[in-house]
Amino acid sequence: MNATPGRERCPRCERPRSSCYCAQLHPVANCWPVWICQHPAESRHALGTARIAALGLEHSVMMPCPGAANPSLFPDSPITPALIYPGEAAKPIDELQAQTERPLLFLDATWRKSHRMLMESPWLQSLPRYALENRATSRYRIRRASRPDALSTLEAIVETLGVVEGDAQRYAPLLAVMDHLIDQQIAHMGTEVYARNYRKG
To answer: What is the value of pTM for the model shown?
Structure first.
């Protein structure tokens, strides 16, 4: 059966052809590998940002985690990955700069679901944990968050790589793709709906 006109999806970014962003992506050769552990619900999110990172970084792996996360989901690594996740046990990201390059592991989920992923995985709990400090206001303008510095997965990845590799502008094009998708979504919903539901002040 033929696909419904206008609903055919790109096999890479999994978005409708009309809003495919693959042509805008020019993969960046990141020095620190990025691993993304994705909650199943995020794969159905229309504006999930983790896939932009997975497609836009040469050294990245995104794996669905329907159960407890474990190392068998990811490539073998001689060095223990660093979990990028806030909390009292987390050290500042800056401390990674003086260390040997290692995989950076991110949880792609809402705060509540990511916390549950952490609590259900002894492996995640055993990893050294690091957190971003003095985070900028999120550019993800169509999400309700409990605090203005609650970053999307892509923003957290870009900011972390900028810190550990010392070159924040190198990954800015990935954020530009996210901005473009958000602009499309706002245009689709209309400025009045956007202002009523998302704009503050």
So the answer is: 0.83
